[in-house]
Amino acid sequence: xxxxxxxxxxxxxxxxxxxxxxxxxxxxxxxxxxxxxxxxxxxxxxxxxxxxxxxxxxxxxxxxxxxxxxxxxxxxxxxxxxxxxxxxxxxxxxxxxxxxxxxxxxxxxxxxxxxxxxxxxxxxxxxxxxxxxxxxxxxxxxxxxxxxxxxxxxxxxxxxxxxxxxxxxxxxxxxxxxxxxxxxxxxxxxxxxxxxxxxxxxxxxxxxxxxxxxxxxxxxxxxxxxxxxxxxxxxxxxxxxxxxxxxxxxxxxxxxxxxxxxxxxxxxxxxxxxxxxxxxxxxxxxxxxx
Length: 290
Fold this sequence. Notes:
By secondary structure, the chain is an alpha+beta fold. 61% of the residues lie in helices and 17% in strands. It has a domain at 188-286: Beta Barrel (Thrombin, subunit H), CATH 2.40.10.
């Protein structure tokens, strides 16, 4: 046999001896590697699933972040608009502040003017009050003087009327005495030389004595009722005190005016100075049929 063939045979034997272990090892390692491969493949699948989940979560997070970003951009735009609006308001407020400053100055000036006016008005009111008080005092004094003058005038008028009545009665008496006319058949009462025909009262009447004066030996009295109340000359009034109880005397009416009447006083008792006095304010009463 050729040497080369021997060498070849030897080599093939050696290779066979060397390859067998390798085949055995390969057989063993193939199952192991296959198992590891399967494990790694499952791990890769799990990793890919986890990656897919992570990517989906990341996409969801990214979507949420984009939404929040957009909302933030909207809020930012609104905030920017609010800032501009507030700047406008600030400018308006600054203008109003300036205007209020001017108004404040004007108001302070007006308040000062009003204060001065109020002070002047207070002084004027005080002066007017003083003047009104003085004028009121003068008015009261003038009113008192007027009342006194009216009372005096009324007294003088009453006295004048009584005197005029006496004068007229004297004139009538003189005329009667000098004439030759017949005397009336009606009963008469002599009073100091005067004759008055008595008349019967046709109504009840209550009056007051307003004035009394003495005329010689007789008293003349005036009452506050007259012809408009129905009084006629010759009526006889009964004079009583102001309480209406104490009798004083009789008043025979001699002369009648519209709102007053004058007559002479007669007493039932003797004229010895013991007669009650006839005074202003006493009551004179006429009775119907007397």
